[in-house]
Amino acid sequence: MKRFNGQEVDYGYEVLEVKVDEEKANDPDSYPVVIVTKKDGKEETFEAKYALGCDGAHSTVRRSLGLKMIGDSSDSIWGVMDFIPLTNFPDIRKITVVQSEVGSVLNIPREGGSMNRFYMELPQRTVAKQVKLEDLQATTRRIFHPYQVDFAETIWWSAYAIGQRVADHFSKANRVFLTGDACHTHSPKAGQGMNVSLQDGYNIGWKLASILKGQTGPDILNTYTIERQRVAENLIEWDKTWVKGMASMGKDEGGVLDVNNKIDFSEVWVKSEAFTAGLTITYDESAITWAKRSTQSLAKNTIVGMRFPSAKVIRFCDALEMQLVRALPSDGRWRTMVFAGDIRQDEPSRKLSQLGQYLFSQHGPIQKYSTPGSDIDSFIEVIVVLSGERLKTSQEQIPHCFWPVTGKWGVRDLHKVYVDDQSYHSGHGHAYEFYGVHPEKGAIAIVRPDGCKS
């Protein structure tokens, strides 16, 4: 912010009210959002084109707009502590679930080598607001018995009731948008609070940026609710199963039993890894996700609506072996990924040449959607992935349009062409096989600014 427009984050404001003039909201150049704030005892009002409500489960923004949270709070009360343990428990530096007749503890070793985070189930009829640190420590000792647990230092602690809720609407007039706990709440045991909230913010962030830079129209904002509300609903359903498994002692309650008739949390954890990392998100059909109009069979392992996966390739210009995802930095650009096959052969060479002529022509999508005066790759970047032997392919065989002139000095960018070939040091990445692309047929994949296949 400071580098681009001299601004910095303004801290210390209390938001009192947010209003949207829905009639003015129809004018894309208007400032229909009014935010009433207080700082140092003085009220101050701001007008904005857009606003994000990232203000937590008790969101003032959400309440001001009349939006509601739908769902339930359970009777299950849990505590959480970040502390330095003194213990003879042998697995203290492993992610572990400890269960006993008096409750459960999820142990997550924290960074630094000494601190741990414990989530512990508290006795029934516990009132979260009345919980003290001593209660959490006593519960932990009872659950870990006969192992000893002492507390050298407690850095942070809290207690909370498990609740799974989703907002009835994620936006107001496509001008104010809710993210994170302001529009979905759940248990905080599996990293989903931060993971999903950051994904919310990034999803709306790149879309707003594209509008404000004049690259797309405001209709793209309709996709925020389409995409993120479904993610939140799936998260809540997953969280209900996760919480039940954490707290239960039997298979009937959702657990996976091991040979000792106890819940096998290793299996539960492994099954949830991809979900926890956000890799299972699949966005539905929308203006920017065209599953029904795509020929999925041409790249059968890259699913439309899911994150574009990564395989090892060789950069053509300098023989650098790298993950293809490194060619897709998070900078707001769309990517056209061209799997052109072996261009030493006539047919793939002809197709790549024709594709380049279309993409970069005056009537093609790249020039059509680029801002006047900007680099040719500033909005849509074309990445080429060849098959065949790199050392037997010459640079002259690759059309010049795929080495565009860019930047202040007008230098040709040679870093946009890659080869699925043997590396000098670590073998073959077999990228075409990984993506499910047949070298003789080839494929084109459109990748959105957030890394999802469009």
From TrEMBL:
Residues 281-451 form the Phenol hydroxylase-like C-terminal dimerisation domain. Residues 26-238 form the FAD-binding domain. Coiled coil: none annotated. This is Putative monooxygenase. It holds the Pfam family Phe_hydrox_dim. Keywords: FAD, Flavoprotein, Monooxygenase, Oxidoreductase. One of its GO terms (molecular function) is FAD binding. Belongs to the PheA/TfdB FAD monooxygenase family.
